[in-house]
Every structure is written in C-alpha cells, then in structure tokens.
Design brief:
The chain is α+β, with helices and mostly antiparallel strands and 371 residues long. Helices cover 33% and strands 19% of the residues. The strands form 3 sheets. Strands 1, 11, 12, 13, 14, 15 and 16 form a 7-stranded mixed sheet that branches. It is elongated and about 110 Å long. It starts with a helix and ends with a helix.
Length: 371
C-alpha cells in the first residue's frame, strides 16, 4: 500500500468520524422525542364548564386577589402516593351532574311574574341573545308548573313564574352600576315579551352587596404555580405529552396546555400544565424545543376532599424527576424543601373560611365566584 492510498483511507476515516460525531451531537442537542406507541391520551380533550372559559385560562383578578406562586420551599405531601414513586392517577369518583342554579348567595335576583303560565317554547323564543351584563353572567330560570322545580326553560314545559339572577362578583371585580343597568334592561325586555312584570332589588343595595362579596373573594382566592425548567436536554411537545400522560394529563382545549381532568362531569381541570403556545403551533413541533412549563392549581375550583394540593405537589415532583427539570418559583429561584408545609396549613384555613361562608372549594357557587 502506497503512502498516498494510506493517507486517503485515513482522511476518509477522519471524515466519517466527523460525520458520526456531528450526527450524535445534533441528536443530543435536539429536544427529547416520545417513545412510539405510548401516547395513550393523545386524543382526549380537557373538560370545561359549559358556557364558561376553562379554569385558569386568562384569569383576571378583581381587587387584590391572593395568588400563591412558586413558594420558597417544597415539603412532603400528606398523600401516601407522594413517596412511593408510583405514577399519579386522578382520583376515581362517581360522575355527578351539577346543573347551574341561581344562588342568592352570589346573585342579585329579579322576580318575573306573568299573568298566565308561559310555554317553554315562548320563553326560549324571547330569551336575551346573550346572557351577560358587561363582565357578569346572568341566568334565567322558570318554575315548572308540574314539578314546581326551578329550571332553565325547556320546550314542552309550562312555567308560572320566572327569576333572573346576575352574578354580583367574579375575578373581573364587583358588579357595578352600569352592568346592573344593562341586566335590568335585558330582563325588562324579556318580561315585556311575556306580558309579565319584573321586580328588581334596589341598585344601591345590590352594588354595595357586590362590593362586600368581591372583597371577601379577593381575600380568599388562591392560585398555586410552580415552574419546571429543563436541566439539560429540552423537550419536544410530544415527549412532554407522553410523560405527562402517564400521570393523568390530557391535551387541553387550547394549544400549550395539558390538563388533569376533574372528578366530576363538567368540572374544570384539577391541575393544568401550561407551556409556550407558539411551540405547540410550530410547523414542526417535533423539533421545536421546550425548556420550561408551569404546573398550576386553581384552589377554589376543586373540592378539598380529593386533596388537589397533595396531587399538585406530587405531580411536580414526579414530572421534575422524569423530565430532568428543576422546580423554581416565578422569579427563577430554585424551590427547596420546607415551605409547602406552611402553604398547606394556610390552605387549610382558607378551605375552612370558604366553607363557613357556604362557598366550599369546588362547589357550584365557588366555581362561579372564582371565575
């Protein structure tokens, strides 16, 4: 073998080595990819409350809402599943239908009395096209002449009386004079179309009550959030969905969102994982890299008896381990052990305060008020 041939072979081996190294380096720098045939929940969709936005999506606060985001420590959970390393599984509970009802605790209620019973078809025909007064939803119910129950008007039924209730507060703030006037105008038009008289509570009393309710809600609102930041290799959307799917999360209703469904039909999600929606909408999401996401819990939206706080802590620990991520607060400071115990104690006091005002976390009234 001549020297020229030997040098040519050596050069070829060096070139091959560079190509292999370049390919290996590129694969290491790219986001982690899902393992085939493991995306069990790829087609499931996060549930939402009918006619209302999903909890935690674009929440705006009225007043100084209490938001607990990224505490200074991370404590053991009270749930046995937190220490055994097993995947987090949503609690199994009976599916319960909870129809929305007008509630004097959070609604200002107007009575509507027609001269004669009204058919459901007639009531439906004259319902306002939108059931909102500014940023506040309102509901109209009729008292069924046969059952005596208050219900949303239905075809084939007859109603001897109606009531309309406008929500006095939500996370947009307290009901104001302009919103109440809009509610009155819409209900008066509905009543006139039925040949009925409408009786409204005094505006000043309603607005004053709304401010009191808003003040209470602002002092007893809590939303927990912890940020997971990749330590080394970034994640692809598919890898993140696959990993979170093993712990009960499913694709959300909007891009950049994974949710752990609630235990009841129509309930908001118990936990939400959110990440950059632009990555989720990328032309090639498999190569779009994610390095950060947020795990959040909207406290008033979920009943305390299914231990959502413990589930939130456990999910954060398990996902951080599997994704090779560091838990940090919203300022980027690493979360250490210890502070979540204090947060848990504070939440117990919050749960008790809500329950003492008939606004237990996860109840229909609480979900409406803290929305």
């Amino acid at each position: 073998m001549t020297l020229t041939v030997a040098l040519a072979i050596l050069a070829g081996l060096v070139l091959l080595g560079l190509v292999v190294h370049s390919t290996w380096s590129a694969s290491k720098k790219g986001p982690r990819q899902p393992v085939p045939d493991s995306a069990e929940a790829a087609t499931r969709v996060e549930p939402t409350l009918s006619g209302e936005p999903a909890a935690g999506a674009g929440v705006e606060g009225g007043g100084a809402a209490v938001t607990i985001e990224g505490a200074d420590g991370f404590a053991d959970t009270t749930s046995p599943a937190a220490d055994d390393g097993a995947p987090l599984v949503p609690p199994v509970r009976p599916m319960i239908r909870r129809p929305g009802r007008i509630d004097a605790l959070i609604d200002a209620i107007a009575a509507i009395r027609p001269e004669a019973p009204v058919t459901g078809e007639q009531a439906i025909q004259h319902l306002p096209p939108t059931r909102r007064a500014g940023a506040k939803p309102f509901h109209i119910e009729g008292q069924n002449t046969e059952s005596g129950d208050w219900e949303t008007p239905r075809a084939g039924q007859r109603y001897g009386e109606f009531q309309a209730g406008v929500q006095m507060a939500n996370r947009h703030g307290a009901l104001n004079e302009i919103e109440y006037s809009e509610f009155v105008q819409k209900i008066e038009a509905f009543a006139e179309s039925l040949g009925a008289m409408a009786d409204f509570p005094d505006m000043l009393d309603v607005v004053a009550g709304a401010r009191e309710l808003d003040a209470f809600a602002s002092q007893h609102d809590a939303q927990l959030a912890v940020v997971m930041r990749a330590n080394s290799v970034a994640w692809s959307v598919g890898y993140l969905q696959q990993t979170a799917g093993r712990h009960g999360f499913v694709p959300g209703a909007v891009p950049g969102r994974l949710a752990m469904p609630g235990a009841e039909e129509g309930a908001p999600p118990m936990l939400v994982l959110s990440f950059d929606s632009q990555v989720a909408l990328a032309d090639d999401p498999g190569n779009a890299a994610l390095r950060e996401m947020t795990l959040s819990l909207d406290v008033p939206q979920t009943a305390a008896d299914i231990e959502p706080f413990a589930a939130w802590q456990h999910a954060a620990r398990m996902l951080a381990d599997e994704l090779d991520a560091t838990l940090v607060d919203d300022h980027g400071a690493p979360i250490t052990l210890g502070a979540f115990t204090a947060i848990g104690q504070e939440l117990e006091r919050l749960y008790s305060a809500l329950e003492s005002h008939d606004l237990a976390a996860g109840s229909a009234a609480a979900r409406r008020l803290f929305s």
